[in-house]
Amino acid sequence: MADRRNDDMRPDPFDPRPMGDGPHEPGRLRYNHAPAEPRASMPGFDAWVDRDPEHRQDQREYDQGPPPEGTPGRRRRRIPLRWVTRGIGIALILLVLAIGWLAVTAPLSKSLKPPTPPSITLTAADGTPIARRGAIIAAPVVASDLPAHVTQAFLAIEDRRFYSHWGISPRGILRAAWANVGSGGVRQGGSTITQQLAKNAFLDSDRTAARKLREVMIAFWLEAWLSKDEILSRYLSNVYFGDNVYGLRAASKHYFGREPGKMNIGQAAMLAGLVKAPSRLAPTGNLEGARKRQAIVVGAMVDAGFLTKAQAADVQPQRVLARRAQSLPTGTYFADWVLPDARDQAGEVQTEATVRTTLDRNLQRTAERAIRQAGLRQAQAAIVAMKRDGEVVAMVGGRDYAKSPFNRATQARRQPGSTFKLFVYLAALRAGMNPDTVVDDTPVEIAGWKPKNDDGRYLGDISLRRAFQRSSNVVAARLTQEVGVRNVIRAARDLGISTPIANEATIGLGTSEVSLLELTAAFAGVADGRYPVQPHGLRNVADKSWYQALTDGQKTMPDRIHRDMLTLLAASIRGTGRAAALSVDAYGKTGTSQSGRDAWFIGFAGDLVVGVWVGNDDNTPNPGLHGGGIPARIWRNFMVSALDLAPVVKAPVVEDVDPEAGLIGVLQNEVAPIAGRLDGLGVDLEVGPDGSISIGGPREAEPPRRREEEPAFEDEPQFLRSSFAPEDGRGPPPGRGNGRGNEKGRGKDKKD
Prior knowledge:
This protein is α+β, with helices and mostly antiparallel strands. Helix content is 35%, strand content 11%. It is built from 23 helices and 19 strands. It has a five-stranded antiparallel sheet with strand order 7-6-14-13-12, sandwiched between helices. The protein has a three-stranded mixed sheet with strand order 2-1-5, covered by helices on one side. A three-stranded antiparallel sheet has the order 16-17-18, with no helix packed on it. Strand 12 (587-592) and strand 13 (598-605) form a beta hairpin. Helix 3 (148-158) packs across helix 11 (287-303), helix 5 packs across helix 6 (209-225) and helix 5 (193-202) crosses helix 7 (228-238). The model is unreliable at 1-42, 47-55, 183-188 and 651-751 (pLDDT under 50).
């Protein structure tokens, strides 16, 4: 068999010879499928290939080369049907995915919800509104139930072709673009009512192409699933009308005091005109601008064929309700604190809700006045008043909410000083001690730490009552070491202190930080005899779960411990806290952190438990500030007014002059003068009936008295009538005296 490669019957595929008789470009190699001399015995290569007619036509055009000039052009290739089918399928898949994405990220129900949190009005215990939070929102409206002129006012100025387009208006977009180009900026918007609903309910206000694209997609989706009246109803129920008012019903009540169905043409036109710039055109602040915009809307209603010129001429400029002279406050310390619980109690609200709180307006005014009259300069102050069960009735978190809304009663964490000794002595009583237990008031060293009494005096063996009365630091340190740091921390935790407490002996002097609200609630637990006390600001406290009831349930303090704790706290009023003395039984404790950075007085009388804090926000020292001074006076002044007490005409028995509230307090006019001789100072000091002080020569210091030499503490009477009380029973105003003396000792660091 001959070699097929040498077979002369096989054409050379790269034969450079010209093909046929047609024209040939010199030097061009043509792909030649046909033999130079066709043979009858062997067909050409194309005869063996099964091609469709279209392909054969294309092949012939390729083989023949480009057509001569003047001949018709080459026929255009058609897209195969299978590619069209595939494209339609991909488009359907993308549409389904887009619908699914919208269903998840922009459910239709969202268009019925208000765009901002609904307004919650907080009321005092007597039902008087005290604060409002959130937007003013009323029930939704139904467009088909409104008078024609109400809906026509919005259609005329916002979207005249609302009932004819499919969610977007190309004509409106072009008109707005032309107007904006002519004005050199953005002056008009081409958004339809459907697009505005999509933006208000689902999107933010960013002016980006991506947001605009999503707005168009949501608009098409809303048009596909909702009727025109449903879209218009949701738009009118959500649109903003200024003055923090959302929705047509809320706006008509806010501005005109009537339901939207009773608005006249002018009122409807004024509200429709506010949509363009609600904050700037709100008629309560810009009535002239709102009326000008009203006239523009009325003219648009005439152009749209909704009104005749005669009807438009009868429309008068509208009046609105006068803004209240004293608008409801929108920011107070108590309202900020109670608002999260109020929202939880109200649940998911669609319209304005009202929640009653525990605030007593009279006590709140008393607390504010007590701080305002305290004579503070740069220092801040806070006060919390609650019932024994934790019901907060007054709260002041600072001197001026407008200047600083930071709530120092609930948010600040400061060192409590000697008020923390409440937990040290509670642990001691739990360990079996009692107010008459003898303790050692002499210098001590604990692991290199040497606590000192602020006045430098050490009385040796004294009773637990006396140590608490004079707020001995060395006794508190010894007790912490004796009962154990863990038991002191446990006592604090049992009474509700949740802030971190260091595991070291120094906590007995109040080195761990707490909040005023928590510390006051801890004293409320002692006052009530049940602990922990949970401070709350709402009347109806949500029920606890069964787990919380088992783990966080209140415990009852044993009668003996409860009685002994009251004895100690009453003794403190006759000691470092004597500036807080009342004409009724009172209980409390002073506290001062190092260098007077924080000064506290927390106590209770009657059915009120009150805590007071004074200090600087930047935690800088306040030389001379101590808990037995300004905080005790604020506490006393509040209690006298809150409990409707007579001015103090009896002074507590002066059993020991302590630097916390003794001679220094008298010299600084911080306590009422006490007539008589004061012993234990090393000098002869006598206070006259008029408040004058006479100081004699130095005396030989007396040695510390032993336990058997201490005077007896009588439970009744707790107070003795002062020698300067006039016959009518009225003494000098609390806190005022005529004492004079030098200023030494004012700058001494104290920690009572």
